[in-house]
Amino acid sequence: MKRFLIGYLTFFLLLSGCNANTDKPAEKPAEQTKQTQTSGVNKSMTNVKMETSKGTITLALDAEKAPLTVANIEAYIKDGFYDGLVFHRVIPNFMIQGGGMNADMSEKADKRAPIKNEANNGLKNDRGTLAMARTNDPHSASSQFFINLKDNDFLNHTSESASGWGYAVFGAVVEGMDVVDEIAKVKTGNHGYHGDVPLEPVTIKSMTIVE
To answer: What is the pLDDT of residue 12?
Structure first.
């Protein structure tokens, strides 16, 4: 199964989990992600520390607006699923994507069934937000996610149809947007039939829930 960010190369390029799973971002992150980041103090938010080879990124997951998605991601984190995986798709001025591929671009098998798309929760694909990658099937997201590098309005939910479901936002970067921007600057190329792959792996060393 390939997770695509439908519409970027039909609008630019697909946000793909490359071989099989897909999911989907300069400065002033606090201002540009104000809507999502201010909710980071909400008691319903789950804080996650992501240690990468480029630095630490702290995420706030919105379990109130995206309960199914957050529960799914939490389960993967608790299993250590993401540890050692890479950001396998980097497209400047668009997004960085990870959560499904090993450094050699082989896909790590998903452990769970796909989840219902919660893109109709009112959260937008603004800069600094975290969203789920998926295939053409709106309800196919599993482990892969992406961080928006800018406001990607065309990824937002518009209707409960195949073309309008959009990509479910379930959290935001609350610290470390500078690290995200550094990842966005890495040189990329092709790896087999995969494109936009960092030439030097950007590794997710670990993801942990901060109690």
So the answer is: 36
